Amino acid sequence: MSTAVNTMKDFFNAMKNYSSNGNANGVTILNDAVRTVSHFASLQDAINNFVHDVTDTETYSDTAERLKETSGIVLGADNDNTADTGAITGLNAGGSTLKNAVTIVPEDFDLTYLPLPTAGSTTTHTYTGNDGQTFTYYVEWPASFTKMYDFRGVTQEMLKDMSDSEITEKYFKDISTVDSYTDEFFTESITGEQMISGMETVIKGLYGFWLNQGLKLAYDSYGLDFDGKTIVIQFAGGGWFTDTQAATSPVDSAQMTVPTDKISMTINVPLYAIIDPADQNGNTEIEGGSQQSYLDRTIAHELIHATMFGKGIIKDNSPEFFTEGVAELVQGLDDSEAQETDTITSLAENSEKLSKAMALEQGTGTSIRYTAGYMFLRYLCQQSLNVDTQIGNSKTPVNFTYNGGENIISKYKSSDSISYWTDYTGVAVSGDDLILNSSSGKLHIRDARNKVIDIVNPSGNLPSYAYMASGVEDINGENYSGTEMIIGADNASNTITAGNGGSSLWGGNGYATDILNGGSGQDVFFYGSGNGGDFINNADSNDTINLLGITKEQIPTATITDNGVHLQFTDGGSLIVNGQAGNFVLSADGQSYRADYQNKVWSLN
Predict the structure, then answer these.
(1) Where are the domains of the chain?
(2) CA distance 229 to 454
(3) Is the pLDDT of residue 215 over 60?
């Protein structure tokens, strides 16, 4: 049985396969990760199911019950710091220990007993994960603990063409003599002395606990280590940075999408000028303080960004709801102190609002996407709790064993083997993956490539063979006897030809062009949302075309010709059918249509 932590570790292991590929698309690698850990065919398929389930008032009319049953989210009691935060490692996500606002980032004693590192120095640190592995990293401290980047009156546009040294020379200023710090956004008057005191408290927390414990939390939650990397600490305030608690990015902007060894973390000094100098958690909820109650949780959030940049798994087009939601998941969001319970509830009660928050768009700072991303990942983990996931080794042969229940077999290769029952009662397919149904469970074969699988069943309910392509290749079903299922590779153009015994033909997921050629038997063709521009040839009246995850509204153009059909989809994909196919089944609507080729009209079956 999987746990939420196991699910997310498997999720990130799938993303690591693309670490060194700076041209990889963020949505593409998320598709792969989602398919690795769940039964969903793609990221969008998972999003669609998430939005439906979390806002489905017919199944669970009570919002709190619906959140708990679909996503495992248990909203914290008002003003209760002892509530579980909903973090991935906590009790509500399937862990064994309640993790509240104080314990989610553990510390030993108050900050007054901790020393300051030397300004301008580089210090060496180690941390050890729950599995006993120890990692070493380095911290570069600011050149001065009485200076910060003072961005009052400065916009990001003004900094765009300046070098780092120019920015430092112009804006890295001594704040010790500031009597009253305000700007057009930050109206609370604080002094330079308060900011320096707050800065020293933050440095002590980072040096003594927060970096080590935050990185340990990242490793224990996701399997992301920071070994050999360097984090550069900076402090800033004012202007464009006013509404930011902290920001993390590679020091070299050219290394945004590949593994990088040096990552900067910039912390907003004015926001944390009034902070308890003794509290080990970085309590800012004292008289005159602002922002969330514990800074150590914000640092843990930022360190997820740091480890992801270090591993090179943030790519172009990585959606904001994911990059921020996955950082929120380590600290939790559903306790009252995170001030997100109202937002979680409002999203669970408005499907349109939730759908918009789950847009596949880049960015940062869109607060509703932080919350929606957190909810989505809790949902994804909840859907995988009762699934046994087996992931193959890329170097050595693996024998996967299916013993009943819900299973996902992922990343297997031609030298692997699968042992499973023969007591099957039927077959179904999802996405570009094979699912074998038995009377007591399902075997989901994920991303199976370059292997012919002998699935002969005496009952005759299963095809004789299933073949999954490994890449760009032509696949001729006439090479196999009996019925077969042939599946194209993701993001690769395949020409797939059916045999004579009746075939199930699939183009792979992604925007490559697949050509599916029917045979003399009764064939079933499959096209899913996100499958790009595909062609089906030699279709006849006995054949069926299944449109998976597609509604009628997602087909703005459906043109019938004398001998074929041209379908255009709202996601930019298309399907051209050459031949007079019989049924066109829209799985998302549960409706079956028949094309009248003589009169050029559609009719419901």
Answers:
(1) 4-383, 387-604
(2) 47
(3) yes
